[in-house]
Amino acid sequence: MITNKRKRATRAVAGLLAMLAVIALAGCGGDDSAVDPGTDPPDYGPALAKAPPKLKALYEQGGVLVPGELDAFSEQLEAVRGYPVVVNNWASWCGPCRTEWPWLQQAAADNLDEVAFIGVDGDDSDDAAETFLRDHPVPYPSFADYGKEIGNQVGATLVGGFPNTLFFDRNGELVYTHQGVYEDQAALEADIRKYALGES
């Protein structure tokens, strides 16, 4: 009788642990390669060819993890003043970040001649972030934010965790923050049209 009770308790605990593991993997905190789309990036060439000098200078750092945290990020925002800016706050281990990554790639390919795209990589290591950027090319740089200085300054590290997408106007003012993963490519594109390009 005691043995049966122990067996049932052991099975219950094992089931609970398995359920907790599934929940943990479903959240952003897990390294969930199953949601990594692994697709080839779009052709950035046509939009790059049309980009004005300030944006071309930004995109010369495409796919690079830039050190310097808040100071470097602030200098970059100032350098592209006059253009709307889309900032994606991501981490290589974040499943939802990986889910929306191809949508950001396509959005950049469609809009980088009018909009400055910038990444902010937080809670990561250089090796992991650089490997991810090499395997998932984007035409814009990402700024390391391991001390969360950038996020704390501009409001990127809000209660939703990663990812966050922030929209700055042509004067460098934050006008909108989308917390969490986008529903799809169309939802991201709609926010770019509304908050970056000012279309109704």
Task: Tell me what the structure shows.
- The chain is α/β, with parallel strands linked by helices.
- It folds into two domains: 1-30; 34-196, Glutaredoxin (3-Layer(aba) Sandwich).
- It has helices spanning 2-26, 45-50, 53-59, 69-79, 95-111, 126-135, 149-154, 185-196; strands at 65-66, 85-90, 116-121, 142-144, 164-168, 174-179.
- A six-stranded mixed beta sheet has the order 1-4-3-2-5-6, sandwiched between helices.
- Strand 5 and strand 6 form a beta hairpin.
- Helix 5 crosses helix 8.
- It is globular.
Characteristics:
200 residues, alpha/beta, Glutaredoxin, 2 domains, 6-stranded mixed β-sheet, 6 strands, globular
